[in-house]
Hints:
alpha/beta
Amino acid sequence: YNTTNLLHLLRMASAAAAAQSEQxxxxxxxxxxxxxxxxxxxxxxASDVKKLIEAGYNTIESVAYAxxxxxxxxxxxxxxxxxxxxxxxxxxxxxxxxxxxxxxRTRSEIIMLTTxxxxxxxxxxxxxxxxxxxxxxxxxxxxxxxxxxxLAVTCQLPTDMGGGEGKCLYVDTEGTFRPERxxxxxERYGLDxxxxxxxxxxxxxxxxxxxxxxxxxxxxxxTESRYALLIVDSAMALYRTDxxxxxxxxxxxxxxxxxxxxxxxxxxxxxxxxxxxxxxVAQVDGASAMFSADPKKPIGGNIMAHASxxxxxxxxxxxxxRICKIYDSPxxxxxxxxxxxxxxxxxxxxx
Length: 351
């Protein structure tokens, strides 16, 4: 009996080890970054590498993309050390020119995440693009948060079903994250609810500094597991209250620019889709409000406009229907699609 039991335990242990190594191989296959610890083999001291990790530089790419002055701010990194670190990091990253053919081949392999609505996916050329920032803005009750909740589930689907086979990071600044909505969407796709919730890491941001700090944690988490999506709902809410009046406008925009740059860096390094929601402001200045058909515009100014790769404008339609318009995109035409919000997330209109 003891021998049989032992054999059974050994079989179970070897099966678990095989599954773990298979998972590790899968993670290696989809990895687009190099861990910063690899710099130790290039003669960079382990203590210096530890300092880089503590400062939020978890990958060689993040070090290579950083300006020299950003490294000099780190305590214990001298100018000579910063030069050596940057030189070694740049050797390991392709940061020069490449042909348009090569870029075209890379772009053809980009994964798109389904929104849950076929019409909306068609408008977006397949879905939410990974490796770039997609901004959704509109008034309250236009479906921004509902779209985020649906994407948090669809990003976990296999790629042949329009997913990204990865986990989701959700930064909630308004306290609107609801796990029960994820369970409803998971049921629609036939996914295990408990597994879906385990694959979504949510953090509540309480101020604009904390919001930026969470991105450093996100970078660390992305080196440990495969993530397909990073959601910030909403990116501007805390900036609206932390900075007030024109006197603080310059400081706000500089802080916002750093936050958005960190988001873009995460999209570049890890190939995740970054989705941010934004609020709107009504234009009340005479002529523009009088002659404009829709006097609402997204907040955040030009800094927000230039940081987002694709900007989507959401507005209310009839009943549960919502209208999504391509407001700005480098490759998609200005067009509209109608989708609806149901009990099981975002879908196509019924009628």
